[in-house]
Amino acid sequence: MSIDTGSNCTFVPDTVYTDAGVAGAGTLLSFIITNFLSLLLSAVIILLGLRKSTSAPLLRKLLLSFSDQQIITGIGIQSIGLAKMKTMVPYHFFIIWLLSLLSTATNMATLLALVNDFKRDWVLRWLRQFFMFINTLLSVLSSIFILQSVMKNLEPRLPIGCVWEVADRGTPSNAGLSIAGTIAVIAGNVIVFILSTWYLHNRTNPRWLKSVQVVGLIMLTAMGIGATVRVVMVSQAFGTVPQGVNLVGPSESSWSYGQLLPLLLLVLPGISMLEVVRGETRTPPSKVDDEQGDQVGLLSDTELQGMTYQPNPLWGKR
After folding, report:
1. Which of 86, 97, 139, 288 has the fewest CB atoms within 10 Å, measured from its CB?
2. Transmembrane ranges (predicted)?
3. 223-261 pLDDT, tens per residue?
4. Contact 31, 60 (CB under 8 A)
5. How far is the C-alpha of 252 from the C-alpha of 15, rounded, in Å?
6. Among the residues of 152-241, which ranges form H helices?
7. Which residues 6+ apart lie within 8 Å of 262 measured at CB?
């Protein structure tokens, strides 16, 4: 973990301890692999939907499992970063921020591909809405800390929480792109949350829905690739640590049970998939997409809405 300065923002330590819990090879790989698999599964499901060839129930279950795992771990690691802001240096906090972007990309891609599944089950829909809100809130808070640290040119060996206490050291000449990118991420998080909320709760299925899925998936893939490249470049586990951090302690590229565990958890969705294939667990096909494609010209708007959207029984009405 990072050196505890006792919330003293005037003393700059010479070194910073490594923190494999948030920047270790296993932790980074688990986020990267989950994001890659989720984007791939989302692309396949959306493509099959365009061709109206199959509702892909097995792929949907696998994607939902990866997405649930990623959004929970994403919220967890952001909570750890904010809870340790008085001891965690900007280097580790920045890696957590990048991992949160991977989590967001995974969650949004899943929403694009499985939106009809969520609409059909009000419990899943509102659970997804809750996790989306918590993830967006934490991501925006983390982005504000990152933005402040760049604008104030925070000493890299001071805790990230010191951004509100230390004096401005002057914005470096090459910080313009970082500031613009961070502001764009903050605005993007808010805009995406608003649009995804509308997308999740919209009772109609407009004909341009497939176009939104394709364009959105392309943008999320670019976001996932960008965050992956960046986290690989700046992490001790795979790349080069930024100058001035001076990490000491066990290397974050070293493997241990704590680093292997996140990767082992990736096997769980595969086990669930195997149970479905063997018939031990039933997964109904997504008739929503198939019926919508075959009968959209035969059903009235009211009939189609009733088939694709289950209102919240606590306050929703058909």
Report:
1. 86
2. 28-50, 94-118, 130-151, 179-200, 212-235
3. 999 999 999 999 988 988 888 888 888 888 888 888 888
4. no
5. 15
6. 176-201, 209-234
7. 26, 27, 29, 30, 73
At 143, which helix (H) or strand (E)? helix 122-151
Residue 171's pLDDT is 67
Q: How distant, in Å, are the alpha carbons of 28, 140, 166, 232, 317 from that of 137?
A: 22, 5, 25, 25, 29
In angstroms, how far is CA 95 from the centroid of its own chain?
Answer: 13
The two three-digit tokens of residue 229, written as one number: 């490249």
- How far apart are the C-alpha atoms of 127 and 133, rounded to whole Å? 10
What pTM was estimated for this model as a whole? 0.84
For 269, the 3-state DSSP assignment is: helix
- CA pair distance 223, 217, nearest whole angstrom: 10
Structure tokens at 171: 């914005």
Alpha-carbon distance 124 to 203, whole Å? 15
Residue 219: which residues within 8 A CB-CB, separation 6 or more? Answer: none
Structure tokens at 271: 């086990």
Instruction: Name the E strands within the chain.
Output: 16-17, 247-248
CA atoms within 13 A on the CB side of 221: 13
d(CA 52, CA 269): 25
